[in-house]
């Protein structure tokens, strides 16, 4: 089973070819990701119109590249899987239209894939892991605990009620004059800082369950920064390091405590898996692993290029879906919102 995957729901234009041969582990034959970071840099965030146009302009060549690198022609494919949501609708539509066109022209089956399902099924692309497992998806746009019970069965156990941690890392970097993306920059500064100097809040720990909040943390950081500026006329190098260390320790502790609860809520699972760019953070990763080990649950962190947005996870989700007998269909709509516990693709014109 060889599938082409197409992903264009945010600011990465991606295409990949993944093959599953019975009896062998899945093979990623190619995984091309063209980031748009430089196009949006001047605007301080992803501009939907710019993203949509860039996807439309670049998708053709990224797909071609993925096929060339894989050494696979369109006629050697068994199908196409495409992200049908959730995401910025202009970008999603670009991908869906291209996939539809290719599928129709070549008579190939077309599978609509939920972007979040792609993230959630990634651990099975890299490791032989059975259902059910717990997934912590923690990125620039998402933060949620998903109990993955099957290819098409996800239960959201909780998540952020406001910002995603990646977003908080990015805003922290901005407030402290550090480069974007903020995560790696803040992690670097934090390494040399004292996490105890500033007492940042651990929001929502008193609330039952595993919902989280990160927007208060950003406000606390802003206040600490401003009082330093008022008192001393600016920030020293060490101030910056200590602020980063305090912030990162707060995020890590909240994630760890809520992961502990999620593992208690989920019942027995085969693993705790992480996805999303924030999973690259070493102290956060270490905290999560500690919690996991305490529960006697194996900890799984796929390689970073598969944790962040890519199309191999979309192709893989397509393969998983075909394998369990879900019928491909080109009769689906692109959706800006598509919660994972509602996995059926919306039908065209259903208004969903
Ligand atoms: P999504 O995939 O949810 O649509 P996204 O494209 O922003 O959103 P990713 O590409 O998975 O998400 O991750 C990017 C985010 O991860 C950024 O917010 C970035 O700051 C954060 N990040 C990357 N590396 C680190 C790190 N070492 N520590 C903390 N955060 C990090
Ligand atoms: Fe994503």
From TrEMBL:
Q: What is its EC number?
A: 2.3.1.234
Q: How is the cofactor bound?
A: Binds 1 Fe(2+) ion per subunit.
* Residue positions binding Fe cation: 115, 119, 309
> Which gene carries the instructions for this protein?
tsaD
Q: What class of enzyme is it?
A: transferase
Can you provide one Gene Ontology molecular function annotated for this UniProt record?
Answer: iron ion binding
State what protein this is by name. Answer: tRNA N6-adenosine threonylcarbamoyltransferase
Residue intervals of the Gcp-like domain: 27-316
Q: Which reaction does it catalyse?
A: L-threonylcarbamoyladenylate + adenosine(37) in tRNA = N(6)-L-threonylcarbamoyladenosine(37) in tRNA + AMP + H(+)
List, separated by semicolons, the cofactors it needs.
Answer: Fe(2+)
Name the GO terms of the biological process aspect. tRNA threonylcarbamoyladenosine modification
* Gene3D superfamilies assigned to the protein according to its UniProt record, in alphabetical order: 3.30.420.40
Q: Which UniProt keywords apply?
A: Acyltransferase, Cytoplasm, Iron, Metal-binding, Transferase, tRNA processing
**Subcellular localization:** Cytoplasm
What exactly does this protein do? Required for the formation of a threonylcarbamoyl group on adenosine at position 37 (t(6)A37) in tRNAs that read codons beginning with adenine. Is involved in the transfer of the threonylcarbamoyl moiety of threonylcarbamoyl-AMP (TC-AMP) to the N6 group of A37, together with TsaE and TsaB. TsaD likely plays a direct catalytic role in this reaction.
Decide whether keyword Plastid is in the record: no
GO CC entries: cytoplasm
Q: Which residues bind substrate?
A: 137-141, 170, 183, 187, 281
**Protein family membership:** Belongs to the KAE1 / TsaD family.
Q: What is its main location?
A: cytoplasm
PANTHER family to which the protein is assigned, alphabetical: TRNA N6-ADENOSINE THREONYLCARBAMOYLTRANSFERASE, TRNA N6-ADENOSINE THREONYLCARBAMOYLTRANSFERASE, MITOCHONDRIAL
């Amino acid at each position: 089973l060889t599938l082409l995957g197409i992903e264009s729901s945010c600011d990465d234009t991606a295409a990949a070819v993944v093959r599953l041969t019975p009896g062998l582990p899945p093979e990623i034959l190619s995984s091309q990701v063209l980031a748009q970071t430089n196009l949006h840099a001047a605007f301080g965030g992803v501009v939907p119109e710019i993203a949509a146009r860039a996807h439309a302009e670049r998708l053709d060549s990224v797909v071609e590249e993925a096929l060339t690198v894989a050494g696979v022609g369109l006629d050697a494919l068994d199908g196409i899987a495409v992200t049908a949501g959730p995401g910025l609708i202009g970008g999603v539509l670009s991908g869906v239209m291209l996939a539809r066109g290719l599928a129709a022209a070549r008579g190939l089956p077309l599978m609509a894939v939920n972007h979040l399902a792609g993230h959630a099924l990634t651990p099975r692309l890299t490791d032989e892991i059975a259902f059910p497992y717990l997934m912590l998806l923690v990125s620039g746009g998402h933060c949620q605990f998903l109990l993955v019970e099957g290819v098409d069965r996800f239960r959201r156990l909780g998540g952020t009620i406001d910002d995603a941690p990646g977003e908080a890392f990015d805003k922290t970097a901005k407030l402290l004059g550090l480069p974007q993306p903020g995560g790696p920059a803040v992690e670097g500064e934090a390494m040399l800082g004292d996490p105890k100097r500033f007492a940042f809040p651990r929001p929502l720990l008193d609330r039952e369950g595993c919902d989280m909040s990160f927007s208060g943390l950003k406000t606390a950081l802003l206040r600490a920064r401003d009082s330093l500026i008022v008192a001393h006329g600016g920030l020293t190098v060490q101030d910056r390091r200590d602020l980063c260390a305090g912030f990162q320790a707060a995020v890590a502790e909240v994630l760890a405590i809520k992961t502990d609860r999620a593992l208690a809520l989920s019942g027995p699972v085969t693993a705790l898996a992480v996805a999303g760019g924030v999973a690259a953070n070493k102290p956060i990763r270490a905290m999560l692993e500690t919690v996991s080990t305490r529960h006697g649950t194996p900890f799984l962190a796929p390689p970073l290029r598969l944790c962040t947005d890519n199309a191999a996870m979309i192709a893989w989700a397509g393969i998983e879906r075909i394998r369990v007998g879900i019928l491909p269909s080109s009769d689906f709509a692109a959706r800006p919102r598509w919660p994972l516990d509602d996995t059926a693709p919306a039908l065209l014109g259903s208004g969903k």
